[in-house]
From TrEMBL:
PANTHER family: NA+/H+ ANTIPORTER-RELATED (PTHR43478), NA+_H+ ANTIPORTER NHAC-LIKE C-TERMINAL DOMAIN-CONTAINING PROTEIN (PTHR43478:SF1). This is Transporter, NhaC family. The keyword Cell membrane applies. GO terms for cellular component: plasma membrane. Residues 158-474 form the Na+/H+ antiporter NhaC-like C-terminal domain. Keywords: Cell membrane, Membrane, Transmembrane, Transmembrane helix. It is a multi-pass membrane protein. The chain crosses the membrane at residues 12-39, 68-94, 106-128, 198-214, 264-283, 295-313, 325-350, 370-392, 404-425, 455-475. It is found in: Cell membrane. It comes from the Bacteria.
Amino acid sequence: MDYGIWSILPPLIAILLALTTKQVFISLILGIFSGAMILTDWSFFAAVNMTLEEIVAIFSEAWITKTIIFSFMVGGLITVISASGGVQGFINYLTQKRDIVKDKRGALLLAYITGLIIFIESSITSLVSGTVARPLTDKYKVSREKLAYVCDSTSAPVCGLIPLNGWGAMLMGVIGVQIANGVVDGTSAELLAKSLPFQFYSIIAVLAVGYYILTGNDWGPMAKAEKRAAEKGLLLREGATPMVSEEATATPPKEGIIPNMWNMILPILVLIFMMPLSLYITGAGNILQGSGSTSVFWAVITAVTFAGFLYVIQGLMSLKEYIDYIYQGIGAIVPVAILLITAFAIGNVIGYLETGEYMASLVEGRVSGAFGPAIVFIMASLMAFATGTSWGTFGIMMPIGIQMAVAMGAPLYPTIGAVVSGGIMGDHCSPISDTTIISSMASASDHIDHVNTQLPYALANGAIALVLYLAAGFMI
């Protein structure tokens, strides 16, 4: 059934309510319910039942369940690492022994560099950056919104630009279908590699983060947040609700423990290196064919287990204390998990309504080739903003974008780059995006405050990228 313009209603309701009420959970539920109303032909009780069933049904998809468990386990890992004295030891090393991080710029650069070098998976990138840098950014009075921005804008963009990860596997898969269908020639790896220089938004986003860190020239809501933190010492806006509790984000070392940075570094190294190993195993020897959801699941389980052996063997805590800290961390992540569950559920409802296909149909075949990359970028951005998923946008827009490029005579590589960049940009702007939610969690920021402060930067970066796509369309 073709739902037409009605298919836009659920994401529109969820996004507008989230931005105006700042109650993301209620906004997502109402978005799901409105979609269910449309799907059940406006039957109230059938829509209520469908809303509840859709929330339960997401656990039937293994990759979603693994992602939620991953979030729980990361919460446990962060808490137990803090209790072991690892985080405090790392802070002492950087600020006292080596005098490396001396101010807020150094603390933010630590998060930035961490985001650049950990490109194995966007969620892990955000979580590691936030975990490592947050104690230092708190010390030097950096707003949580600024840290969330750094975590968010060095996760997906970097993973897209260095696709030796699950992102690369996914993108080559959707490109490969078009090759198999005879739409374009070549190999998926070749086409993706040649499109990387045309991921204009991703490139600009990464450079912009570095610029704002080095110069401090923040503007808009971000400038107000930074001024509040610097002058009043308020890392969060008064009345704001951090994605995880302050107790969980600032778990002190267990009494009597001598802080040691290796108690943090070693488990995080295990987490990082398990990711490519898991991709290699699940891909039967081909890292680019591995399962991203399974790999992050294996990686965090291994890291949590390793941390337990490390701390118990050292006598830092008993097995019971270790388990208690894990439970404490898991408990702190419950609000995040609830938001992820509802975000995935509304994504499924939007899929039933074929919102993405409807949005793409509005321009398909109606523009000249020179405008192709720019139009594809705009459509991918709007689609990711409305659906809250960059990967879902890639799956819908990559076939459409490639076929449009061929039919219109638009340059192919900029068009592929526009799909990826547009998906990431829309994700950065969307309050219902799972990756944006995880970035808020990693920085312990209020989620809507993160969206509101990042939005102007994302739009500015997107405007520059749009100009570059227009130039590429006419010059290549």
